[in-house]
Automatic annotation (TrEMBL):
UniProt-recorded name of the protein: Reverse transcriptase domain-containing protein
Organism (species): Aegilops tauschii subsp. strangulata (Goatgrass)
Domain of life: Eukaryota
Length: 204
């Protein structure tokens, strides 16, 4: 292929060989991972050190040890956190005063009563909301997935129901964490140094 165009039969054979090669390579990786896992279960020190090396290497790649802020480099955790808050607060901007406003009552006239919106949450309503949650998503900060909530609903439903009742009765004790977000910075480039080289994502 480097020196002449492939014929139709040669191109077909190349595709078949490539698929076979990729399949064998994937199988080889799976076998290697399984061997390491089995060796770790047997208490093999070599396997444990192998896993530790890869875990530490991954942590080193994702850890931010220093940031370039203007002309200086900051390395302490508090200084980097303060710089990140200042930088991304400036990126988000501030709300500007509006010169005009919209009278929403003219746009839409509600004809149906809305008294039921002020009713307490029912167990059926909460359960329907849990059933509508998407499956196969990453767990939240508490480590629980949608599948867990559904499978253990008979056990945990009273706790969930009590939490919703706290909302209804305006008992906000301990709810300040609901307004927090876990912020993670993803590097846009391999040699990321300044905050502009990172892309923020948040888990609320």
């Amino acid at each position: 292929q480097d020196f002449r165009p492939l014929s139709h039969d040669e191109a077909w054979l190349r595709r078949k060989l490539k698929c076979s090669y990729l399949g064998l390579a994937s199988l080889e990786r799976s076998i290697a991972r399984q061997r390491v896992r089995l060796a770790w279960l047997r208490g093999d020190d070599v396997a444990v050190s192998y896993l530790n090396i890869h875990a530490s290497h991954r942590k080193q790649r994702t850890a931010i040890t220093s940031l370039q802020v203007g002309a200086q480099t900051v390395t302490s955790h508090d200084a980097m956190a303060e710089a990140a808050v200042s930088h991304f607060s400036g990126v988000l901007g501030t709300a500007e005063a509006r010169e005009f406003s919209i009278d929403q009552s003219i746009l839409r006239q509600y004809t149906s009563p809305l008294d039921d919106l002020d009713e307490p949450f029912s167990e059926e309503e909460i359960w329907r909301a849990v059933q509508c949650l998407p499956s196969g998503k990453a767990p939240g900060p508490d480590g629980f997935t949608t599948e867990f909530l559904r499978a253990s609903w008979d056990i945990i439903k009273q706790d969930i129901y009590d939490a919703f009742n706290k909302f209804y009765t305006a008992n906000g004790r301990g709810f300040q964490k609901l307004n927090e977000a876990l912020l993670t910075l993803l590097p846009k480039r391999a040699d990321a140094a300044a905050l502009s080289d990172y892309r923020p994502i948040s888990l609320i």
